[in-house]
Amino acid sequence: MKKLRITLEGKAYEVTVELLEDSVSSAVQPLPQTPVQVPPLSVSFPAGKPGSTAPVGEGCVAVCCPMAGKVFKCLVKPGDQVTHNQVVIVLDAMKMETPVVAPVAGVVRTVLFKEGDSVDEGDCLLQIEGLAH
What are phi and psi of 32, to 5 degrees? Predict the structure, then answer.
C-alpha cells in the first residue's frame, strides 16, 4: 500500500493505493527502432480548377489546401506582407472553420481562389514570395 496526496482543482485529497504488481514498467517494452524507406511523393492535380495547375513562381512558396472544403474568408490580397504562421485563409470544411497559415514570411504574389469557391485537398490557394533573411 502506498499513500499519496492528490490536489484537484485546488483541493487536496489523501488516497491510499494498492500496488498490484511490484514492477508495472516491466510490462511496457520499447518498440524496436527500424528505419523505414519512404518513396518520393508524386502529386498530380486534375486540370480545370484555378489552383490545380498553377505554376509556382520563382522564389515563391505555394500555400496548399489541407483538406477539401470552401474558401470561407480570404484575409490577404496580392501585395500584402504576411508573417510566418499568419492566418491567410479560413476554410469551411465539415461545418468547421479551419485556418490556413503562411508557411513563410513574405509578400503575397497571387491568390488563386475567392471566397465561396470550392477547393480540394492539395489545391494551391495562394503564393508567397519569401523574404530574404
Answer: -65, 145
